[in-house]
């Protein structure tokens, strides 16, 4: 699980920060998933090491422009390039109607299948390796946070030990690799877990924006390996955060702490904290770390590899 931040500003882009988008690359299956798609996201992808041809899923948190204005352009470009096989898009009610209107008035035709899924709290996607779930956050419009959970995997299969036990190779090896108990033709019962190393715990990635502090965000982020959480405002501007239903740096840190997350990366910063102003982004970072020490501040094109637990 490899994260690339494509936009870390809130509301409007700045010279150094684009509006919201985060890419999650899954190298083991050559797939790219996007979380939000603010204006200019496709340009950011072109400036990164990401491959547009690997794009397969897009998860939209809510319908504000700084999170969706890049979506139609990205999809149109993928169609013209002809290098995307299918894209599934997940988001709130109204997302499909928005895209249909964009297609109709711009006379855009997609040369590949695009499927829009209206999400509700709970599991929105699952396959053999991953579960993606969402929950409603607390914002001015319906907004969702997303949790991507990698399923646990059996530990490494010890082939040499299997050979020493004179277990014949073939389909039975696959069963034992999955930790199953197998009865051999000679009557021996072999527990696959005894031939495998420790279980590999699946990694957990959580993305929460836009929201003021809420318990649903805490629930989503339980035991997350990495929590990406908006920190639009400094603690000093907390009243503004409550009025606009956005988070401060301290709210993001409190969410990570309450959830027992392992790492917090703050994003979605107001341009008001530019260098030279009374409060700068470094101050937000210090505020966050005072509550949750393992806090990091995102910047455009920053990458982060979600580690496996030892």
Automatic annotation (TrEMBL):
The keyword Nuclease applies. Binds 2 Zn(2+) ions. Zn(2+) 2 binds at residues 66-67, 210, 268. Its EC number is 3.1.26.11. Residues 202-269 form the Metallo-beta-lactamase domain. Keywords: Endonuclease, Hydrolase, Metal-binding, Nuclease, tRNA processing, Zinc. Zn(2+) 1 binds at residues 62, 64, 139, 210. The active site is at residue 66. InterPro entries: Metallo-B-lactamas, RibonucZ/Hydroxyglut_hydro, RNase_Z/BN. Its cofactor is Zn(2+). GO terms for molecular function: 3'-tRNA processing endoribonuclease activity; identical protein binding; zinc ion binding. Pfam families: Anti-Pycsar_Apyc1, Lactamase_B_2. SUPFAM superfamilies: Metallo-hydrolase/oxidoreductase. It catalyses: Endonucleolytic cleavage of RNA, removing extra 3' nucleotides from tRNA precursor, generating 3' termini of tRNAs. A 3'-hydroxy group is left at the tRNA terminus and a 5'-phosphoryl group is left at the trailer molecule. NCBIfam families: PRK00055.1-3, RNase_Z. Zinc phosphodiesterase, which displays some tRNA 3'-processing endonuclease activity. Probably involved in tRNA maturation, by removing a 3'-trailer from precursor tRNA. Homodimer. Belongs to the RNase Z family. This is Ribonuclease Z.
